[in-house]
Design brief:
Pseudouridine synthase; nine-stranded mixed sheet; Structural Genomics Hypothetical 15.5 Kd Protein In mrcA-pckA Intergenic Region, Chain A
Length: 308
């Protein structure tokens, strides 16, 4: 297949990371895509291949980028019904059910959101990488609610930048066991891979792990539970679940970071991505989207109100 070769001149006015410089030169590509090209040796600085996205450009240089033609995804589309919240030519917002995995991973090679999205719009197949086409953020398997997919490279770059710059406001509803120490608050506790179980994350000591910040406020109190509105400022893996457990009130039904035997008759954890506010690709005014609680979670709240 033909490949695209682009050449750019860095004039050395101020120091700049190689990947950031190329993002400005190639706005139609996401930063993650450009970083992948650098890692693969597709970028040369003054004729020499570099492999580190963080390479500092500090003097005049000639940058050559080789962009291989997009390879069609090897994933097979699957006709799975999707609950679409919003769609235009750039993005697709899906209300994901609990139990659906977002993209293929070990033990989950079929039936994912990506497989369903490819059947809905095959063009998504070449966006953002073969294994995770269209994906710009994720939800845990048993977390329900809204997730955004990009339908073209420009939209993928736009959304990736919005998430990176923390301009996307995400609001979750979480029912937790017990009660947080204050009705509203902010948790700042770094998160890293668990040293004892590589499948899990854990709260780390300061200076280790990655910064993680979560804000919450109480919506409703029950004798043994609390309904919280939660806003993750950062987007770390399992962040809300870990921070809730860190407060001493794990998400109800979370058998990984909470009680091994759920306090309520629930087959998933009670965490739902309820609201998203962000600018659509090319837009300047923030748009707001909502996804109602799934019926099983609404029923659980009704029962708690009745018995509480």
């Amino acid at each position: 297949m033909n490949e695209l070769i682009q050449t750019y001149e860095f004039h050395g006015d101020i120091q700049e990371r190689l990947d950031k410089f190329l993002v400005k030169c190639l706005p139609e590509y996401s930063r993650s895509r450009i970083q992948a090209l650098i890692k693969e040796g597709q970028v040369q600085v003054d004729g020499l291949a570099v492999h580190k996205a963080g390479t500092i450009l500090d003097k005049c240089a000639r940058i050559t980028v080789q962009i291989p033609s997009e390879q069609p995804t090897t994933l097979i589309p699957e006709s799975i019904a999707l609950n679409t919240i919003f769609e235009n030519r750039d993005i697709l917002i899906i209300n994901k059910p609990a139990g659906m995995v977002v993209h293929p991973a070990t033990g989950h090679h079929t039936g994912t959101l990506v497989h369903a999205a490819l059947a809905h719009d095959p063009a998504i197949g070449g966006i953002g990488g073969q294994g995770r086409p269209g994906i710009v953020h994720r939800l845990d398997k048993d977390t329900s609610g809204m997730i955004i997919l990009a339908k073209n490279d420009a939209a993928h770059h736009w959304l990736t930048s919005q998430f990176h710059d923390r301009k996307v406001v995400k609001i979750y509803l979480a029912l937790v066991d017990g009660h947080p120490p204050t009705p509203a608050g902010r948790v700042e506790a770094p998160i890293g891979r668990s040293p004892t179980d590589r499948k899990k994350m854990s709260i780390t000591t300061p200076g280790k792990g990655r910064q993680a910040v979560t804000e919450y406020k109480t919506l409703e109190n029950f004798p043994q539970h609390t309904l919280l509105q939660v806003r993750p400022i950062t987007g770390r893996t399992h962040q809300i679940r870990l921070h809730a457990a860190f407060l001493g009130c794990p998400v109800a039904g979370d058998t990984v970071y909470g009680r091994k035997h759920p306090s309520l008759p629930i087959k998933r954890h009670f965490l739902h991505a309820a609201q998203l506010t962000f600018c659509l690709p090319g837009g300047r005014t923030a748009q707001h989207f909502e996804a109602p609680l799934p019926e099983e979670l609404q029923t659980l709240l009704v029962e708690l109100r009745r018995t509480g």
